[in-house]
Amino acid sequence: MKIKRVLLYAALSGGAFIMLIPFLWMVLTAFKLPAEVLQIPPKLLPSKLSFANFRDAFAAAPFGVYFFNSLFVTTANTILQVVTSALAGYAFARFDFKWKKVVFMIFLGTMMIPVEVTLIPNYILLKNLGWLDTYFALIIPWAVNVFCIFLMRQFFLSLPKELFEQAQIDGCTHWQILWKIVFPVSKPVFISAGIFSLIGSWNAFLWPLIMTNSESMRTLPVGLSYFTLEFATRYHLMMAAALFATLPVLIVYFLAQKYFVEGIATTGLK
Question: Are the CB atoms for 116 and 154 separated by under 8 Å?
Fold first, then answer.
């Protein structure tokens, strides 16, 4: 058993290291001199830590504006998705209505439709609404997350039915049950859904690229494309900006890691 455990940990450690290689390469490249980035043979460690890359990256584009846009859009999307997912998940878990299973399966079926398929119809719709190049286009279409609804529903189903019946006997409305009873015992799944929403919104590239035109509405992922020129890519500046863009997500994840793992591990368990 000990040998199997050692082999298992060795395989997991090897897989984790392989997954970390791109991140490590990004961090090291962010501190390299321009001549070292494309050096042949590749040079892993920089000969000198070049903090000027971060200064040059922020001087090359208005990353303060990009960061604010990403922060505002991500915060709004995360809050809206968690709220709508909690309401829909509670309805699917505890309400009995006609065609409930069919409606839920249709919801899940939408997850199999690629975003690229609906991109043109959505663009035309937002254009007719006059929302192109506005925060409405970046927030409202993503106010609902089907995966988070599924996550919430499965967690609510795992809660004892007697808990809800006793609350109703005591005269609680569904709003009171959701806020005073369900929410306190469901914080892990709320945080898990929030992290999924945060990462997806923060890293979104295609949607903001298509739906925004002006520089004042760009988000960080779209702003990183500024360093890709017609004939060359300034990798040292791109990696410096990418490192800056990655840090907020890493900080949030490490702060909420305990609740995230607990929410995923307990979802759907009776």
Answer: no
Domain that holds residue 171: 51-266
Question: Six-digit token pair at 9?
Answer: 């940990």
**Are the C-beta atoms of 89 and 153 separated by less than 8 Å?**
yes
Residue 85 CB-density burial (10 A; 0-12 exposed, 13-18 middle, 19+ buried): buried
In our burial notation (b when 16+ CB lie closer than 10 A, e otherwise), range 15-24 reads eeeeeeeeee
Exposed/middle/buried for 1, CB within 10 Å: 0-12, 13-18, 19+?
exposed
Q: What CATH number should be reported for the domain holding residue 219?
A: 1.10.3720.10
Q: Total domain count for the chain?
A: 1
What are the pLDDT digits (tens) for 215-269?
889 999 888 877 776 456 778 888 888 888 888 888 887 777 766 555 555 554 4
Alpha helix stretches (DSSP H) within the chain: 2-30, 34-37, 52-60, 63-94, 100-109, 119-129, 135-139, 146-158, 161-169, 174-176, 183-185, 187-202, 206-211, 220-224, 235-266
pTM: 0.83
Contacts of 37 by beta carbon, 8 Å cutoff, 6+ apart: 29, 235, 236
Phi/psi for 233 (5° steps) reads -125, 130
* Alpha-helical segments (H) within 131-211: 135-139, 146-158, 161-169, 174-176, 183-185, 187-202, 206-211
